[in-house]
């Protein structure tokens, strides 16, 4: 598992897609076998075969390698650098200054072609951190890249420590620390989604410790990086309301709302929200909504599809939260909210899975956790890029090998089918369990 993931990184940004697909598939299969063995041993009352030192050592080695190698799957780090540079160098607003406004700037030229006219869709916390980072480290491309990669690695490392302290389970640590998606897509890509995952995990832990205002601030920080993190905030708020009362929920929610209003007020208010409205019409390839949005050429109808997708994500979040609201801690409702968005949201990328993965690791034997791992693995494999593509705008796939053709089928057909299947299975299983509980409850 560790060797396969390390081999993908060692092949670098120019590694061809077919070997990378095989190596990643091996890595995911090995992780699945390892976790299955650990679950069986736990059910049998046997000690873990994994050692803490081994798991943390392998995770540390992979994180170091992920930072040392330039991003292999995504150029988002250059978009991050640009938005930070807008603040630090131009003293301008990243929500109104896309790369195309400065076509001769070498940093703007590094931003991927599809995003040359895109304003920042990230929240005020990201804007502040990226601006500070580019002020200090934005003199060279290397230091800027390392800043974002190291920040992602630090967030993952912090999450591993928290997971260990909460579970004392090497398997729980392995779910995040040895996961190819986390190492390759998140850390090597320098994605700010690692910040979101740590903030959601912190919110879950703080709720468990009765630190409700701090929990609200932690979950608000996640939303102020990526607005879709409002779903785990909503789910955890419902859990607090059910288990600790409306006063506790109001305390946590109030802290989150005040922090959000202050942050967006400082960032420019409606100006900072404007790019999110434009991004509403973006649908990722494997999304279950991509087809309907493509069939409806009218922008007005596409907005209705986007609104329906958002409503569906909220509805699935509430359903999953309601079915797990009586659990001892809110880890599953927070992770379930992220899974809901990843399954039925309009725009989903592999690294979004990290938003809920650390929280899921606290309940690593849950069926919901395993479904999230399965979906994340298939999503990652579907998005493995082909570096042989050089056209601008790039065509993601060159259909030269059967494996590449199969990847295209997964991307456009099998992944949406898998997402619908998981949704139906989760809903049906939850309703079945609910019916059994009602039928087995004593008649008064």
Question: What's the structural blueprint in terms of helices and strands?
Answer:
Blueprint: H1 2-10, H2 17-43, H3 52-68, H4 76-88, H5 106-110, H6 124-137, H7 141-167, H8 170-177, H9 180-187, H10 193-208, H11 212-223, H12 230-244, H13 246-267, H14 270-279, H15 290-295, H16 299-323, H17 331-344, H18 357-361, H19 367-382, H20 402-440
Helix pairs in contact: 1-2, 1-3, 3-7, 3-8, 4-6, 4-7, 6-7, 7-8, 7-10, 10-11, 10-12, 11-13, 12-13, 12-16, 12-17, 16-17, 16-20, 17-19, 19-20
Write up this protein:
The chain is mainly alpha-helical and 444 residues long. The chain is built from 20 helices and no strands. The longest helix is centred in the last third of the chain and has 39 residues, at 402-440. Residues 390-394 have low confidence and may be disordered.
């Amino acid at each position: 598992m560790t060797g396969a993931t390390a081999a993908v990184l060692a092949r670098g940004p120019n590694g061809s897609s077919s070997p990378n697909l095989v190596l990643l598939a091996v890595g995911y299969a090995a992780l699945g076998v390892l976790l299955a063995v650990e679950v069986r041993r736990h059910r049998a009352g046997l000690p873990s075969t994994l050692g803490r030192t081994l798991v943390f050592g392998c995770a540390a080695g992979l994180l170091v390698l992920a930072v040392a190698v330039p991003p292999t799957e995504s150029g988002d780090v250059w978009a991050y650098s640009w938005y930070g540079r807008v603040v630090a160098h131009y003293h301008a607003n990243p929500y109104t200054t896309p790369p195309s406004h400065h076509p001769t700037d070498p940093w703007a030229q590094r931003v991927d072609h599809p995003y040359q006219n895109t304003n920042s869709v990230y929240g005020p916390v990201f804007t502040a951190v990226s601006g500070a980072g580019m002020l200090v480290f934005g003199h060279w491309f290397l230091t800027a890249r390392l800043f974002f990669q190291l920040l992602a690695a630090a967030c993952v490392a912090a999450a591993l420590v928290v997971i260990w302290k909460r579970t004392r389970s090497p398997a729980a640590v392995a779910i995040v620390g040895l996961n190819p998606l986390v190492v390759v897509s998140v850390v090597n890509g320098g994605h700010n989604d690692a910040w979101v995952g740590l903030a959601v995990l912190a919110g879950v832990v703080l709720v468990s410790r009765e630190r409700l205002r701090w929990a609200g601030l932690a979950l608000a920080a996640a939303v102020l990086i990526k607005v879709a993190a409002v779903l785990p905030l909503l789910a955890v708020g419902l859990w607090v309301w059910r288990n600790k009362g409306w006063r506790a929920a109001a305390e946590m929610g109030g802290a989150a709302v005040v922090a959000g209003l202050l942050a967006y007020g400082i960032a420019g208010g409606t100006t900072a929200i404007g790019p999110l409205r434009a991004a509403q019409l973006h649908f990722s390839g494997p999304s279950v909504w991509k087809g309907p949005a493509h069939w409806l050429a009218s922008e007005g109808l596409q907005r209705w599809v986007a609104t329906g997708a958002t409503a569906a994500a909220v509805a699935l979040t509430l359903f999953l939260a309601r079915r797990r609201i009586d659990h001892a801690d809110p880890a599953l409702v927070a992770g379930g909210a992220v899974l809901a968005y990843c399954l039925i949201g309009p725009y989903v990328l592999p690294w979004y899975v990290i938003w809920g993965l650390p929280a899921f690791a606290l309940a690593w034997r849950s069926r919901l956790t395993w479904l999230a791992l399965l979906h994340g693995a298939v999503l990652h494999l579907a998005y493995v890029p082909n570096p042989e593509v050089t056209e601008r705008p790039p065509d993601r796939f060159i259909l030269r090998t059967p494996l590449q053709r199969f990847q295209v089928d997964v991307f456009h057909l099998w992944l949406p089918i898998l997402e619908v299947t998981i949704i139906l299975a989760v809903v049906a299983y939850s309703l079945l369990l609910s019916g059994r509980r009602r039928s087995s409850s004593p008649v008064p």
